[in-house]
Structure formats: C-alpha cells, structure tokens
Design a protein that fits this description.
The chain is of the alpha+beta class and 297 residues long. The protein contains nine helices and twelve strands. The strands form two sheets. An eight-stranded mixed sheet has the order 1-2-3-4-5-12-6-11, sandwiched between helices. Strands 7-8-9-10 form a four-stranded antiparallel sheet, sandwiched between helices. It binds coenzyme A.
C-alpha cells in the first residue's frame, strides 16, 4: 500500500486529535494536550515530527525529541488501525532514527521523554508496540508505574497539620509569581530535573504549585498540572533532605489533592517511586504499568 511521509504541520492538529483518540486508544487526547506535547516541547524540531498520509489523510504519526547529552526519545508513535502491519510504523521510526543520528543522538528511549512527556514508558497493554520496539532493536531496561486517587471519595482536611507545622516555623502557601526566583534557585540546588515542570505550574493562570518555607527559605514543593495539562496529573513534589520526616511532603500532597478536587474527579500520579508513601497518605492505588525501552544507535 502506498503512503507518503512528510513533516507534520500545525494545520493537521485537529485531524491528529481524532486520529490519536482512535489509534492510541488507551489514552485521551485533546488538541490542547497535543499542542503541549508537540509544539510546546522546548526541544520541538519540525524534522523530528512527521506523519504518513494516504490521499491526504493521516495514516501514521511519529514524534521524536533530542534531549541533553545526545539522548533521544520516540515521544509518540501511532499508526491507523486499518494501516498496521504494513511497514508504516517501521518507516516512520527509521526516518526519525536517521535524523536523530545525524543530530548527534547515541541512544533512543521510548516515550519517557522527561520533562515534557505523554507517558512514562510503554504501557504493555499496547501489545503490538512491545513487539514493534523489540523488532526495531530496543531492549527493555526497567519498568515504572502510575497511581491514581479517586478525588470524589475524600475531603483532605489539612488545617490541623498546617497549624502544627506553623508552630515549628514551617509555613505553607500557594506559590506566587514573586516566589519565582528563590523557587528556581531551590529547584536548581535540590531537584534540578523538575525545573521545567515547576515553571509550567508557575505559568498556569491559577498557579498550581504549593510551597513550604522556613526562615524565608523554601524547603519543600508540590504541584499539579505541570505536564499533560487538563489530565489531572499530580507532581512532581520534593522536600529538601534536611527537612524530611516532619510530615511536610504528605501535607503538601494533600493540599494539592484538595485543590485538584475543584477541577478533577481523579488525580494521576505518574512515574512513581515511593508507592507506599502515596498509598498511605491518600489511598492512591497502582493504576498503570510502563516498560522502559532503550536502543543504542
Ligand atoms: C506499534 C505500532 C505503531 C506499529 O505500527 P505498524 O505500522 O503496525 O508497524 P510495522 O508494520 O512497521 O511493523 C514493524 C515491526 O513491528 C512488529 N509488529 C508490529 N505490529 C505487530 C503485531 N501486531 N504483532 C507482532 N509484531 C508486530 C513486527 O516485528 C514488525 O516487523 P515485521 O513485520 O517485519 O515482522 C502500531 O501497532 C500502533 O499504532 N499501535 C497503537 C499505538 C501505540 O501502541 N503506540 C505506542 C504506545 S506506548
């Protein structure tokens, strides 16, 4: 079957939204979400954002990004259900790999393109995708998971704990634009990987970021809507090592959930490590598993 591969253009965003909902169907897409994933990625490159078409209609889409230190990512890939197993996915991938290589890429990962990512890895329920990445030479190197909290079932009382912490000199507040400078300097020194998401939270119309301060120093942060805006994503969050074990993180987490209840029925906690922390504090449950793949090129 013939198909044409070309760079993807913004005019096709609305067609792509329908295409993704049909063909990447464990996930929900809006044009806003795809715009954030594609065009708002700081490493967006038109030559790494391509699609296949037949008679002008989308049959496939693939996007890659090249991050720091020559690490590349297949950020999104999908082929139309009626066009699969005809070599289109392979052709899209090969063109992206070729272009990444020319740009200095040495390894490619699948999906977990931190800091702007759609999914933290490959959901194994996309079973053909596992076979696809294997056949392209990717090796599985780990796994991760996402949890979720049913926000309709809890009210998240926080005032008693806020008062207790205040007595020990720790105050909690929604971040303000004027906190920006000291926040970014705290992130640089304590959690540099998450600066981009914190900046995104600060730029939201209503800031979706909460901070704990002691002696005017920021010591902990937590927020939501820093990635996949509109999908109810919580995180990241982090407490400076010197202030852990005081209940600051669990309080900030519950404050975020309370705030999220205004807009969402469910909170998703993506790419989780401290499973027991989230489970104990909020009753969060493991919702999705992801396998991590990498290929050296
Ligand atoms: C994964 C996907 C992009 C593959 O696209 P495709 O055009 O069907 O793939 P190709 O025809 O180019 O196949 C390339 C190789 O992948 C493997 N493969 C693809 N589909 C497969 C299937 N259903 N079963 C087994 N192997 C499969 C094969 O090894 C194939 O090579 P071969 O035909 O020479 O043996 C497509 O199934 C898809 O869009 N899935 C839904 C979206 C998705 O899962 N994205 C990733 C989410 S994490």
């Amino acid at each position: 079957m013939s198909y044409n591969i070309s760079n993807f253009s913004k005019e096709k965003l609305s067609e792509l939204t329908g295409f993704m909902n049909t063909n990447h169907d464990l996930d929900n897409f809006t044009a806003e979400l795809l715009k954030e994933k594609i065009f708002d990625d700081l490493d967006f490159n038109a030559d790494l954002t391509i699609c296949s078409t037949r008679n002008g209609k989308l049959t496939g889409f693939g996007m890659a990004v090249l991050r720091q230190d020559g690490l590349g990512f297949i950020k999104i890939i999908a082929v139309g259900k009626d066009s699969r197993e005809m070599g289109i996915g392979r052709a899209i991938y090969q063109l992206l790999e070729e272009r990444l290589k020319v740009m200095g890429c040495h390894s490619i990962r699948a999906y977990n393109s931190n800091p702007n990512y759609l999914l933290p890895g490959v959901d194994p329920r996309y079973t053909p995708a596992l076979c696809f990445f294997n056949s392209l030479g990717f090796k599985r190197y780990g796994e991760t998971l996402s949890m979720s909290v049913d926000l309709t079932k809890k009210s998240f009382q926080t005032s008693v704990d806020e008062k207790k912490l205040l007595k020990s000199g720790v105050s909690i507040s929604r971040a303000k634009l004027t906190d920006g400078e000291r926040l970014i300097s705290f992130m640089h020194s304590a959690f540099p990987l998450w600066i981009h998401e914190v900046k995104k939270m600060l730029s939201n119309d209503i800031i979706t970021l909460f901070i704990a301060s002691k002696d005017r120093e920021i010591i902990s942060f937590a927020g939501y809507d820093g990635n996949n805006f509109g999908a109810g994503w919580f995180g990241p969050m982090g407490t400076h090592t010197a202030h852990r074990g005081m209940g600051i993180g669990s309080l900030l987490f519950r404050i975020c959930l309370k705030d999220m209840k205004k807009s969402y029925r469910k909170a998703v906690i993506p790419w989780v490590e401290p499973v027991c922390f989230y489970s104990r504090v909020s009753g969060a449950e493991v919702e999705r598993l992801f396998w991590l793949y990498q290929k050296e090129i």
